[in-house]
Automatic annotation (TrEMBL):
Entry's EC annotation: 2.7.1.16
Identification of the protein by name: Ribulokinase
Enzyme's top EC category: transferase
Catalytic activity: L-ribulose + ATP = L-ribulose 5-phosphate + ADP + H(+); D-ribulose + ATP = D-ribulose 5-phosphate + ADP + H(+)
Organism field: Arthrobacter stackebrandtii
Domain Carbohydrate kinase FGGY N-terminal: 7-278
Sample GO molecular function, one term: ribulokinase activity
Pfam families: FGGY_C (PF02782), FGGY_N (PF00370)
Pathway as given in its UniProt record: Carbohydrate degradation; L-arabinose degradation via L-ribulose; D-xylulose 5-phosphate from L-arabinose (bacterial route): step 2/3
Domain (Carbohydrate kinase FGGY C-terminal) ranges: 291-488
Key words, A-Z: Arabinose catabolism, ATP-binding, Carbohydrate metabolism, Kinase, Nucleotide-binding, Transferase
Stated family: Belongs to the ribulokinase family.
CDD domains (UniProt xref): ASKHA_NBD_FGGY_L-RBK
InterPro entries registered for this protein in UniProt: ATPase_NBD (IPR043129), Carb_kinase_FGGY (IPR000577), FGGY_C (IPR018485), FGGY_N (IPR018484), Ribulokinase (IPR005929)
């Protein structure tokens, strides 16, 4: 194939930074990487240069921060790799989603125009911008009332994070910005536009975040019923030719070649999402291979040859992960975030001091204590809903529960119960897919939490499945590099590139039979609580959220 001296660059755009990785095409060896932190990070309090407070639930970003990754991280990674830049034959990128950029016809973000520099709606809305929740609720209510065929493809709920809710918020709260906007662009596609000068919409975000199903979007009639001014949203602002994953979106432009130090004209792959691009990096390109990207939250992605409606899934898209297969997505809203919350709020200083004395981090110290326990010894069972439930209940108003606490309960008990709760939540997802006719045959872990051996053993025991782990610590960037190699024509398709360049450690953790039985008993208790609080038997969590909102409102009025 003649790829021994060929290299590609994978660029992973995260929430706070962007990372460029140089990868050898023939075997996927990662030669060097460089990271650039976004100077403006997440804009949540006020716009750059302004003292005016943004409303609650806003999360914006600055487009120039993304360009700096191209200008700084790519040349730095290539230099660190010690290779001739002319040997780099392609670029691939991935991005957080759904992160939206309002642009002019030539791709200029509206916030870079002088007339909109102080308008929050002209900035990039990051994936975790949740201020469009009222619009999302109206979309869902109308879709349910009209029995729109696309709604079950998203587990019955369109998120406030996604393209249509954010677009409707823009129209209703800043109609002048909406009118000036020519394109409503996923950041995954905008960065490729910056690299090539071509705007190509990627199949992944179009399907998962843009309600593109069976070749069409929600109808003009549906959108007009939401707001008469929104009827032509797809036609005027959103619709654009869609590129398949692994295709080339175009050649590197002269301007981007100057930014990156790479050769003008080399192929740039169609954009992708950070979670979904990780699957080929872990050699998960066949039906039944579920990849769990475990970090602050967990995103579960897998492919299947069958189209099924899986209750509570986040989406199913034809070609959403691998062309020719249906790509499924599910998720848990909180995992590592829950462990971090517990450490911050429920662990006494004496434990921190003991951990420091041993030269251990507090997570490591609590894990060591929890590891000494027998299954069920703590007498607890918890619900992992501190950030709501993404799958399979699709209810962000749910909240966390710990049952069984006594005056003898210790921090390590609560910590282990929360580790187990997230594993139980993952089992609900796996069992739901199995029951819907989309069987999970392999569970592959990526992300930072795979470094915790106790957590991995708990997951293997709870799921009663061997766990494999991705062989790369930079899964999204490696996945983007794999797509770059396909776009450059060095492999015929993503499967072939994944086999050569991906990396996975098979069956590194296996279930312990006696543990499986013990966890089955605990999971039965979890499932009772799951259905009691999550399926309408007791809506106390919703009532408490409403009481809390009312109390905050009264407090705000009093302070004003």
């Amino acid at each position: 194939m003649g790829t021994q001296e060929s290299y590609v660059v994978g660029i992973d755009y995260g929430t706070l930074s962007g990372r460029a990785v140089v990868v050898r095409v023939r075997d996927g060896a990662e030669l060097a990487s460089a990271v650039v932190d976004y100077p403006h990070a997440v804009v949540e309090r006020s716009l750059p240069g302004s003292a005016d407070r943004l409303p609650p639930e806003w999360a914006l970003q600055v487009p120039e921060d993304y360009r700096q990754v191209l200008k700084q991280a790519v040349p730095a990674a290539v230099a660190q790799a010690g290779i001739d830049p002319t040997l780099v034959v392609g670029i691939g990128t991935d991005f957080t989603a759904c992160t939206m950029v309002p642009t002019t016809a030539d791709g200029t973000p509206l916030c870079e125009l002088p007339e909109f520099a102080h308008e929050p709606h002209a900035y990039i809305k990051l994936w975790r911008h949740h201020a469009a929740q009222p619009q999302a609720e109206r979309i869902n209510e109308l879709a349910r009332a009209r029995r729109e065929s696309w709604l079950p493809r998203y587990g019955g709920l369109i998120s406030s994070e996604w393209e249509f809710a954010k677009g409707l918020q823009l129209l209703e709260e800043a109609p002048d910005v909406y009118a000036a906007m020519d394109h409503w662009v996923e950041a995954a596609d905008w960065i490729v536009w910056q690299l090539t000068g071509n705007y190509v919409r990627n199949a992944c975000t179009a399907g998962y975040k843009g309600i593109y199903q069976d070749g069409s979007y929600p109808s003009v009639e549906f959108l007009s019923a939401l707001n008469p001014g929104f009827g032509r949203f797809v036609v005027d602002k959103l619709d654009h030719p869609i590129g398949s994953l692994g295709d080339s979106a175009g050649g590197l432009s002269a301007e981007a070649a100057a930014w990156t130090g790479l050769c003008q004209g080399i192929p740039v792959a169609v954009g992708n999402v950070d979670a979904h691009v990780t699957a080929p990096a872990a050699k998960a390109v066949e039906p039944g291979q579920m990849v769990a990207i475990m970090g602050t939250s967990t995103c579960h992605v897998m492919s299947s040859g069958e189209l099924r409606e899986v209750p509570g899934m986040c989406g199913v898209v034809d070609g959403g992960i691998i062309p020719g297969l249906y790509g499924y997505e599910a998720g848990q809203s909180g995992v590592g975030d829950i462990f971090g919350w517990f450490i911050k709020n429920s662990v006494p200083e004496s434990y921190h001091a003991k951990a420091a004395k041993r030269g251990a981090g507090i997570h490591e110290y609590l894990t060591a204590l929890a590891e000494q326990q027998g299954i069920g010894e703590h007498g607890l069972v918890a619900l992992d809903w501190h950030s709501g439930n993404r799958s399979v209940l699709v209810d962000h108003e749910l909240s966390g529960v710990v049952v069984g606490q006594t005056l003898a309960t210790r921090p390590e008990d609560g910590y282990r119960a929360l580790l187990e709760a997230t594993a139980f939540g993952a089992r609900v997802i796996v069992e739901t897919f199995n029951s819907a006719g989309v069987p999970v045959t392999e569970f592959i872990v990526a992300g930072g939490l795979m470094k915790n051996p106790l957590l991995m053993q708990i997951y293997s025991d709870v799921l009663n499945l061997p766990l494999s782990t991705i062989g790369s610590s930079q899964g999204p960037a490696l996945g983007s590099a794999i797509h770059a190699a396909v776009a450059a024509g060095l492999y015929p398709d993503i499967r072939a590139a994944s086999q050569a360049m991906g990396s996975v450690n098979k069956g590194v953790v296996t279930p312990i039979p006696e543990n499986v039985g013990a966890y089955n008993a605990l999971f039965a208790e979890y499932r009772i609580l799951h259905d009691y609080f999550g399926r309408g038997a007791n809506d106390v969590m919703h009532r408490l959220k409403a009481i809390a909102r009312d109390a905050h409102k009264v407090a705000a009025e009093v302070s004003a």
